[in-house]
Amino acid sequence: MGKSPSSRAAATSAPAAGAEPPAPAREPVVVPVVIDAPQYSGLKAALGYLSERPLTPGTLLRVPLGRREVLGVAWDTRSGEDSAVPDGVTLREVAAVFDALPPLPAAWRELVDFAASYYQRSPGEVALAVLPPELRMLSATQLERRLTRLRAKLLPPSGAQGALPAPSAEQAQVLQALAASAGDAPVTLLHGSTGSGKTEIYLREAQRVVEAGRQALVLVPEINLTPQLEERFLARFPGRRVVSLHSGLTPARRLKHWLMVLLGEADLVLGTRLAVFAPLPRLGLVIVDEEHDPSYKQQEGARYSARDLAVVRGRVEGVPVLLGSATPSLESWHNALPATEGGAGRYTRLTMAARIGGGVLPTVRLVDMSRLPKEVLRDSALSPALLGALRERLARGEQSLVLLNRRGYAPVLHCTECGWKSACAHCSAWRVFHKLDRTLRCHHCGLTERVPRACPDCGNADIQPTGRGTERLEEQLALALPGARVGRIDADTTRRSGALEAELSRVHAGEVDVLVGTQMIAKGHDFRRMTLVAAVNPDAALFSSDFRAPERQFSLLMQAAGRAGRAAEQADRAEMWVQTWHPQHALYAALRTHDYAAFAQAQLAERRAAGLPPYTHLALLRADAREQSVAQAWLRVVSDEARELAEQHQVALYPPVPLSVQRVADMERAQLLVESASRPALQRFLTAWDATLRRKRPEQKGLLRWAVDVDPLAI
Ligand SMILES: Nc1ncnc2c1ncn2[C@@H]1O[C@H](COP(=O)(O)OP(=O)(O)OP(=O)(O)O)[C@@H](O)[C@H]1O
Ligand SMILES: [Zn+2]
């Protein structure tokens, strides 16, 4: 290799082995660069910048934009495009090139391009949203300094590995099947009961890949919720580098971890949805734990599904993808059902029905609340029978978990005199009463005020809480079970960093008898002393207008039930209690028998009959404005404009409607549903419609923003 500065520069930016290093160029060339430009700004494609030498696609750089200088990524020249400077066009020059970093891999750019086109955004918006924010702040020199420091501190990781548990018979079968098919890079759905030992499968699969010199990517729903899982991974890879990637890291840490990934120094990446874009140069396997979890769907900006992108990534890179859950999403279940059973037959399905150690799943008990005398329910959310069962656990020194998916003390305060209620001034929602700091808080916009001493409308001093949240439930449990150590885990008690870990370790250490909480505690945790789980008020989801509500509720309850009886010796006395006014409901019947397959079959039949996903494909066009009529008017205009286009693509457009929580932070929200039997047809329609959306946007005075949501979670 030559020693002249220009050939050194060319060599650093040269593509991987095999390709000719580009000759030092004298004429400046045009480099396509993607930058963070939101969709509505009208910039969809890459921008051209001048560079004195060709830059490998994937190179990070800084470019001028207006009066600012922004971070960008050199992008691929599309076939037919010329890198010569076009006549009569003035292009600006690249401001700085991050030569010290390897370019982002081609597979990474392909994934970003796919996500941008599928979710109707610009590649730049997707790319910049998934790069560590800290990168934007750094100059090339500062980054180089960070890299030097990072490399100096990269000591070989140490730690000794304990003895591995011998795989159960089912685990052994699954491992064998996975090893046999790995070469075909399949997508596998691992349907394993709660406590069947799915994590052990992930660990061993990851180990196989890492030992072969490749890297494993493991996605989890919310890393902070499961510190236990991170520890298990760390403990299992001594001498290897396990790196976490999620938005809870400090900016400096997130950059450091991301750099380790890009430099190929990380053997295993454990991360949340944004980690699906981790630029691993030697990827060998993608695992998606709890693949049904709604948090895999990004809800703002580029609204991507990390689970779906994981599958795309596997295809792009030719590596296996393993999706795991005790309650798979109906989409994945449908994909894994063989065609002979009415499914799509796209994924391989592997099953682990038994719990580790041979323990059974908890007995499900339904308490018919409609039979209880009114007096009983006036003061307490807890039926006498459930209280009795909790006392039994206390007497035996076992733990219980009480689930209520609503935080705060009471969802609303009301005046007993004039009927005033604690509405939020900025949202179409009630403000929740939090007793601890005596505040009324809006869970949508965050507006927080002291509880008024008297009714703001009539001055009556008697204002009362209606309904109950976890804070009130905790108080009632402490009263009803004297001497019991009651703990609570929800978004309020865990705001302080480290608080969740502390409370969870108290639970694991047996210092809590009854744990109250929201869905945060219902999933993933490997509690060893829990023999009772109770859902206090789960009925609301039965009558929701959202077609996914039953699926979500069933999965939540089944996951919650899975926290009980995880230690085999206690499993036969483990119980899941459900307090309900509708004990006959089919959802509870399926829960009683732990029959996910039957529930899925019934739901899929309903979805097919109603023309809902996975049998049709949906997208939402959302619009926000100060007034509802303005938002809806714009939706109507762009929908009218698209009438012919929709017909041509066999896509149905529904009338605009307000969102179920119509106003949030003084913003009126409306949406329009787009539906098609064919995914490609929907894609083609959305791409063609995009021009209309941009053209019509400035014509609508008062429209604040709009966005397309492909495969929306809720409609
Ligand atoms: N082969 C094995 N031998 C002994 N113990 C095992 C084995 N496999 C897993 N375990 C233990 O069994 C327990 C349950 O396993 P794990 O947490 O992986 O279940 P899971 O399938 O992920 O459940 P969930 O879906 O409820 O999270 C854990 O404590 C784990 O350490
Ligand atoms: Zn509000």
TrEMBL record:
- Catalytic activities: ATP + H2O = ADP + phosphate + H(+); Couples ATP hydrolysis with the unwinding of duplex DNA by translocating in the 3'-5' direction
Report the SMART domains cross-referenced here. Answer: DEXDc, HELICc
- Residue ranges of every copy of the Helicase ATP-binding domain listed in the record: 179-336
Region described as Disordered:
1-24
Cofactor(s), names only, from the UniProt record: Zn(2+)
A cellular component term from Gene Ontology for this protein is:
primosome complex
Q: Would the keyword Membrane be found if you checked this record's keyword annotation? A: no
**Gene Ontology molecular functions:** 3'-5' DNA helicase activity; ATP binding; ATP hydrolysis activity; DNA binding; zinc ion binding
> What is the enzyme's class at the highest EC level?
isomerase
Q: In which residues is Zn(2+) 2 bound?
A: C424, C427, C442, C445
Catalytic activity, EC: 5.6.2.4
Q: Which SUPFAM superfamilies match?
A: P-loop containing nucleoside triphosphate hydrolases
Swiss-Prot/TrEMBL keywords: ATP-binding, DNA replication, DNA-binding, Helicase, Hydrolase, Isomerase, Metal-binding, Nucleotide-binding, Primosome, Zinc
Q: Per UniProt, where does Zn(2+) 1 bind?
A: C415, C418, C455, C458
Describe its function.
Initiates the restart of stalled replication forks, which reloads the replicative helicase on sites other than the origin of replication. Recognizes and binds to abandoned replication forks and remodels them to uncover a helicase loading site. Promotes assembly of the primosome at these replication forks.
Subunit architecture: Component of the replication restart primosome.
Indicate the family of this protein.
Belongs to the helicase family. PriA subfamily.
Protein name as catalogued = Replication restart protein PriA
